[in-house]
Structures are given as structure tokens and as C-alpha cells.
Amino acid sequence: MEDMDPHSTTADEPRSLPQFPFQHDPESARQDLAAWDAEHRREKAAERLMHSRVYVVARVLVGLVFVAAAAYKFEKFGTVTSAISARGFGDAQILLLIAIATEFCGGVLLAGGYLVRFAAAGLIGYLLAVTLMMNSDFSKDVNWALAFGNVGFIAALMMLAAHGSGGMSVMRRGLRASTEVPKG
What we know:
Elements: H1 26-75, H2 77-86, H3 92-112, H4 116-134, H5 141-163, H6 170-179
Helix pairs in contact: 1-3, 2-3, 3-4, 4-5
């Protein structure tokens, strides 16, 4: 029994808290807690701001990829029309015009942060259709690469569809401006 730890307790006696040589000051504790809370709020605000900025950059980059793809298809209209025709689709020019309009409009909406969920959902449907129509012959390595690239973009678009325009966007600025009450 003499080897027992002086801080351990038996089942019969309750464990006591250690005694400190100073008294508890409730006002000091309240001030320390308020200071900690203020610092924690500043850190969280800085973190949210950084996440918001990164989200905007990512959203704009995804949008610009679609705008660039539309510009490329427009510039190489004849070559892309031939590729669509070679896959056996009639009226390749109309399909290409639809593709250009979808990519351009969807990309501009994403980059600008306007109707992001709608644009992302539309581009997901477009990429699924393009992947199935143009890249489904997996006996060719290039189709594997294009299909997996499209899957990556679909994943990015799903995140945009889930989170919307984010904190910094035309949509947010427009909503804020339309809900402000004029002074005076």
C-alpha cells in the first residue's frame, strides 16, 4: 500500500482536484476568452477570404478553358466539322455551332460567376454527350485521354454546381446591389 501513487484514488474515495496557489479571477478569464475568441475569428475570416479567392481563380480558369475551346472550334471550323462528319453524324455544322455556343456561353457564365450552377449543370450534360458521341471508341489511346480529361472537367463542374458562384462574383455583386436600401 505504501507504493501507491499519492494522486490515485480507491473506489471508495473521490478524486480531488489539485490545489493551485492562486485564486481564480473570473474577469481575467473572461478577458482571456474574449481575446482568444477575437483571434480565432480573425484567423477564420482570413481563411475564408483565402478560400474565396482561390475558388474565384479556379472558377475563372475552368470558364476560360471552355471559352478557349469554343474559340479553337470556331477557328478550325472546317477541320472540326470534318471530324464530326467522320464519326457518322449528319449536319455536323449545326452540331458544331451548338458545341461552340454551349462552350462559349457556359464558359463566360462560369468565369463571370453568373448562374454558375445552371452553367455547370449544362456543361456537365454537354461533356457527357460529347464523351459518349466523340470519344467512346476506346481502342484508340487518344479517346481514353480525352474521355478522362472530360471526367476531370466534369468533377470540377460538379464542385462548381454544388457551391455556386462563391463569394466573389457578378451574381453576388448584383444581389447585393439589388437588396441595398437607398439612404435618405
